[in-house]
Write a structure and sequence with these properties.
Layout (H helix, E strand, L loop, with lengths): L15 E5 L5 H13 L15 E5 L10 H4 L1 E5 L6 E5 H7 L1 H10 L6 H7 L2 E3 L13 E2 L11
Parallel strand pairs: 1-2, 1-6, 2-5
Antiparallel strand pairs: 3-4
């Protein structure tokens, strides 16, 4: 008889991690952070539960992309009204709201349900090096990716 695995309550403690996105590739950061948010990096991972940790990303304005994505990648949003489609290139959105680029990349890798919405609230993205989460004592997390890109 199959039973649903439920991790022990004492293993559900949440940790805080801080990641510096300066000169890191966007997709590599997004996949690592999505893994941490969902808890897939833990042995107690359960698909239907929130077993992940909190992640703080700093220096979002310095994230790198490769190829021609800086000028050709488009971000679209719609106001809900007729003719309300707005398009913006990566470079323009990075100049205006650099946090939104990382947030959208990670949100697309999370589940498309109420659990995904709850996991997304554990992501904190900041454009500069300052963040208000010093009291949580975040642990520095380095992502071993290929740095750089065509800036």
């Amino acid at each position: 008889m199959n039973k649903t695995y439920l991790p022990p309550v004492n293993s559900l403690a949440k940790s805080w991690y801080i990641i510096d996105a300066a000169d890191q590739r966007l997709g590599r950061i997004a996949t690592e952070v999505a893994t941490i948010l969902t808890g897939k990096n833990k042995p107690t991972y359960t698909p239907h539960m929130d077993t992940g940790d909190f992640v703080i990303i700093i220096n979002a304005e310095k994230v790198a992309v490769t190829g021609k994505k800086r000028t050709q990648k488009l971000y679209r949003r719609h106001s809900g009204r007729p003719g309300g489609m707005k398009e913006e290139t990566f470079a323009k959105l990075q100049a205006r709201l650099p946090e939104r680029i990382i947030e959208q990349a990670i949100k697309g890798m999370l589940p498309k349900n109420s659990l995904g919405k709850r996991l997304f609230t554990k992501l904190k993205v900041y454009a500069g090096t300052e963040h208000p989460h010093a009291a949580q004592q975040p642990e520095q997390l380095t992502i071993n990716t290929i740095p750089g890109g065509n800036n």
